[in-house]
Amino acid sequence: MACAIACDTALRACASVPDDAGSNHWRRRDVKKTAVCAAVVRALLIVAAATFVSTACTPLEVVTHTVSTNESRVPVGQYKLDANHWSVIFDVDHFKYSRFVMRFDRVTGQLDWRERGMENSSVAITIDAASVDTNVPQLDKMVKGDDMLNAARYPEIRFVSTHFERTGEASGKLTGDLTIHGTTQPVTLDVKFNGYGRDPLTKADTLGFSAEGRFSRSRFGLTTWYPAVGDDVHVRIQAEFDKPPAGAAG
After folding, report:
1. What is the pTM of this model?
2. Same domain membership, residue 207 and residue 108
3. What is the model's pLDDT at position 22?
4. Is 40 a domain residue?
5. Domain that holds residue 237
6. What is the rounded distance in angstroms from the CA atom of residue 16 to the CA atom of residue 106?
7. What is the CATH number of the domain that holds 84?
8. Are residues 41 and 162 in the same domain?
9. Cβ–Cβ < 8 Å for 172, 191
10. Distance between CA atoms of 105 and 193, rounded to whole angstroms?
11. For residue 21, how far is the Cα from the chain centroid?
12. In this protein, which residues make up the domain named Lipid/polyisoprenoid-binding YceI-like (predicted)?
């Protein structure tokens, strides 16, 4: 606002400079006077812009942060899925053209971290079946409807781990019971432990994981639209679990 007022004032001042006859009329043919006024306005704009940048732009604080994949450093206890840092994505073949992607928007989970790390720990994830999002509203209704997930009758998709087999220093195969559409079948996910650390913003103990796997939807009674829509469902998961620091309000 101050910038606009200053520029407007400068323009008015230029317009009111009297000509040689004493008139207040701005002679448009007076090229020299116009050039001088334009230079004044440009100078004011430069000063105003510099002032705006210096006062309106607050430098971001640089956050330095490291995590460790040393599982023995992770405090034992119950961790909850961070409500703001996760994703669960399914994709399935669509007419052989591409893999159609859908995500879920409401998920909760709990990680029971114990001594000996991933081999001795367990996780349980619950997905709200009605939160499926294909980015196509009409298709959302069809997927959560009676012919597919039947979310009204089977509102939850649930995974409960049963066994972990280590394949690397910070990776392994996590097997668990997956329940969809009222049917439970074993599913194995390839899991990577991304690391543990104290979150620099929340100060909570935080663990991060990536996982992926696949399952046959027909094994869960989901055969609608086959073979136009494939049977093999790919799963991709990103998840952060955290535990508030001791003494924090819960």
Report:
1. 0.74
2. yes
3. 47
4. yes
5. 71-243
6. 65
7. 2.40.128.110
8. no
9. yes
10. 23
11. 69
12. 78-242
